[in-house]
Amino acid sequence: MAKKAPEVGEYQYGFHEKDVSIFRTQKGLTKEVVEQISNYKEEPKWMLDFRLKSLEQFYKMPMPQWGGDLQELNFDDITYYVKPSERSERSWDEVPEEIKNTFDRLGIPEAEQKYLAGVSAQYESEVVYHNMEKDLEDMGVIFKDTDSALKENEDLFKEYFGKVIPPSDNKFSALNSAVWSGGSFIYVPKNTKVETPLQAYFRINSENMGQFERTLIIADEGSSVHYVEGCTAPTYSSSSLHSAVVEIFVKDNAYCRYTTIQNWANNVYNLVTKRAVAESNATMEWVDGNLGSKLTMKYPAVLLKGEGARGMTLSIALAGKGQHQDAGAKMHHLAPNTSSTIVSKSISKHGGKVTYRGIVQFGRKAEGARSNVECDTLIMDNESTSDTIPYNEIMNENISLEHEAKVSKVSEEQLFYLMSRGISEEEATEMIVMGFIEPFTKELPMEYAVEMNRLIKFEMEGSIG
Amino acid sequence: MAGSTLEIKDLHVEIEGQEILKGVNLTINGGEFHAVMGPNGTGKSTLSSAIMGHPKYEVTKGEIILDGENVLEMEVDERAKAGLFLAMQYPSEISGVTNSDFLRSSINAHREEGDEISLMKFIKEMDNTMDTLEMDKNMAQRYLNEGFSGGEKKRNEILQLMMIQPAIAILDEIDSGLDIDALKVVSKGINEMRNDSFGCLIITHYQRLLNYITPDKVHVMMQGRIVKSGGPELSQRLEEEGYDWIKQELGIEDETVNA
Question: Residues in domain SUF system FeS cluster assembly SufBD core (chain A) (predicted)?
Answer without folding.
Answer: 202-436
